[in-house]
# Entry
Amino acid sequence: MRVPHDARVLVADGAKMLFFRNEGDADQPVLKIVSAEEQADPRDRDVKTDAAGQKPGGTGGSTIGEADYHRQAEDRFAADAAAMLNKGALSNAYEKLIVVASPKTLGELRHHYHKETQHRLLAEIPKDLARQPVDKIEAALLAYEAH
# Structure
């Protein structure tokens, strides 16, 4: 895919977010980091303190579903990333946007896009590249064919 000059590219997963600006041209992107953020990503079992509770009046084996604190933290992180995108779109900080995110993160981001952000969105790529070096991200963007 072509990445327009000055387009913004968000690369994210549930715990890491890289926000780039393309300083190259559409056929030879040169991604430069505008901002980066990473949150601690503990496993769910490391965050929980208690076992699942019993349903009122339940007799043995009937438990209330356990909360997935890891997933909740990742969803909050995606919501924060979308808020940053929305703020940039509403302040005209960018004209064109490409989002590359793991499928679950991408799904959560979509719930929080403002209409202005949606209007600037050129592509969404369901791929987990947040832990890849910049040259691999650039290559993946060039190789991506919209379906």
